[in-house]
Amino acid sequence: DRLDRAWSAVNHLNAVVSTKAMRDAYHANLPRITDFYTDLGQDSRLYARYKALRESREWTALGDAEKRVIDNELRDFKLSGAELPAFEKARFKEVQEELAQLAADFDDHVLDATNAWSLLVEDIGRLAGVPDDVIAEARNEARADGHAGYKLTLRMPCYLPVMQYADDRDLRATMHRANATRASELGADPQWDNTAIIERTLQLRQEEARLLGYANFAEVSLVPKMAGSPSEVMAFLRDLAARAKPFAERDIRELDEFAAQSLGITRLEPWDLAYASEKLKTARYAFSDQEVKQYFPEPKVVAGLFHVVETLYDVSIREAQAPKWHKDVRFFEIRDRADAIVGQFFMDNYARADKQGGAWMDDPINRRELAGGVQHPIAWLTCNFAAPVDGRPALFTHDEVTTLFHEFGHGLHLLLTRITTPGVSGMQGVEWDAVELPSQFMENFCWEWDVVRDMSAHVESGEPLPRALFDKMVAARNFQSGMATVRQIEFGLVDMLLHSDYGADGRPRYATPADVVRTVRREVNVVPTADYDRRLDSFGHIFAGGYAAGYYSYKWAEVLSADAYSLFEETGVLSPATGSRFRDEILARGGSRGALESFVAFRGR
Ligand code: ZN
């Protein structure tokens, strides 16, 4: 626990304040940490103790949570090579060390490649269509470098709005290429090319699987998950693809026609998709993301999010003091009705140059029983939204509001647990393909009028979001959802095939990872893609995160979260009774019992 707490902090800082000094310290210590955990996972004395406990009479006296911890441990010992002969144990350890190093390098390359690219635009005419706040930020960035003009970057708060709104097609094409070739052999600098890292990572994962007696890494990855086998996952994804693809094809056909008729774009290119989609959405539903964004200033959104949580789970949230790694970070406490601390969390909302992209939640400290009382959990919530510009509050798009709710859902899984047994409290021990249940569940509230009305206030007038505008958003909610669905399925299939498409000889059936991407695209993709597209080279989820042979989890858990939310729709979306049942049966239970069991306990089926 002490090591976990310390290393979690280092790991986190390496992601959010990725300075040279922090990176060097991280890389210097990573092999030692990996070493320690591999040794711990293979320790035959400890393993023997666990086995003895499992066979002893004391076993029957243990509670369900304790029993589950022991069973998980026994499973994990096997997966860590505890049953291997000595020389294979040593090899297993080398493999783990190299994999850890490769993952760290992968992330560094993506961040460096992202930061290394920028485009100084001198003529503001080239930015026609781009929202004012994005232009203001680009001007500030250029000024900070001592330049006149506007500095465009590949960080999401700049990249996305340029792709969505810039009328200048060449500018979009330039930005698209820069983004899609990051950390690839086509990128700006070969030192950040992740191609070899990807091949080596897959090779080592396969070796690990063979050492453990499995046919491929996907099988290893699925042992602690809900899904039973790679073929079950493939069947799930392909079934979903077959149902979604006709809708995706209709989406792209409509976009094609609209682009030709209204935008003079006779042939849609990859860099036109976001732009044409936004224009079509505006034409069809008479609103734009930019208009909606004016109603979601950060303070109002955060208060609205807290209000939902306070109402559903009978807790209160207030800001508190703690040391922070950046001035923009905020710290909060959750207290129960008796004013006792339930948990604490940090919010780090804005994109920065030295911060990894994306949004995620980390659980450095979990709830557990200690001699002196209960240690409460602490969460780190990280997003990459645009920071406030020129004294105005940060404004969030509805997508960003949804992302914030999503990450907070993960946070609640950790913070509202009642389990005090280490290993199964919070998200610990929860099947990976069920961890997106509480997070995707929270997203639903961003579509409820009562919630949205209370968490919106126009940045200038202070007026809540007009009902008419909200109705248009709801009407547009499933706009292009066919395309969005097949895109997620594409990622899931690529991930699964990379880790499971191996022959009886243990060798991959595909020639290169890029071939897998091409094959899957032929199968499910409906949108134009560029020859230079090397998105696999920045796919950190599966090469530097925990989603290897697990990306399908988003869709898998969405089935559960949608069904869970339907009970709220039936009983009132802000019903404290249903909220407390959701907390009692799902959030509070953590990994102390199977995810499906928790789901059935909540949903009654
Ligand atoms: Zn998530």
Can you give me a brief rundown of this structure?
With 605 residues, the chain is an alpha+beta fold.
Structure characterization notes:
The chain is built from 25 helices and nine strands. It is α+β, with helices and mostly antiparallel strands. The structure holds zinc ion (ZN). Residues 406, 410, 436, 439 line the site of zinc ion.
Task: Give the arrangement of secondary structure elements.
Layout: H1 2-16, H2 20-42, H3 44-55, H4 58-61, H5 64-79, H6 86-116, E1 118-121, H7 132-144, E2 150-153, H8 156-165, H9 169-180, H10 195-211, H11 217-222, H12 230-262, H13 273-285, H14 289-293, H15 298-313, E3 316-319, E4 330-335, E5 341-350, E6 360-365, E7 368-370, E8 373-375, E9 378-385, H16 398-415, H17 436-443, H18 449-454, H19 467-475, H20 481-500, H21 513-524, H22 540-543, H23 553-571, H24 576-587, H25 595-603
Parallel strand pairs: 5-9
Antiparallel strand pairs: 1-2, 3-4, 4-5, 6-9, 7-8
This protein binds zinc ion.
Largest sheet: 5 strands, mixed
Oligomer: single chain
What share of residues are in beta strands?
5-15%
Which ligands appear in the coordinates? Answer: zinc ion
Shape category: globular
Content-based structural category: alpha+beta
Distance between the termini: 37 Å
How many β strands by DSSP? 9
* Poorly predicted sequence stretches spanning 5 or more consecutive residues: none
What integer is the average pLDDT?
96
Radius of gyration: 24 Å
- Biggest sheet: strand arrangement: 3-4-5-9-6
What share of the residues lie within helices? 55-70%
Tally of DSSP helical segments: 25
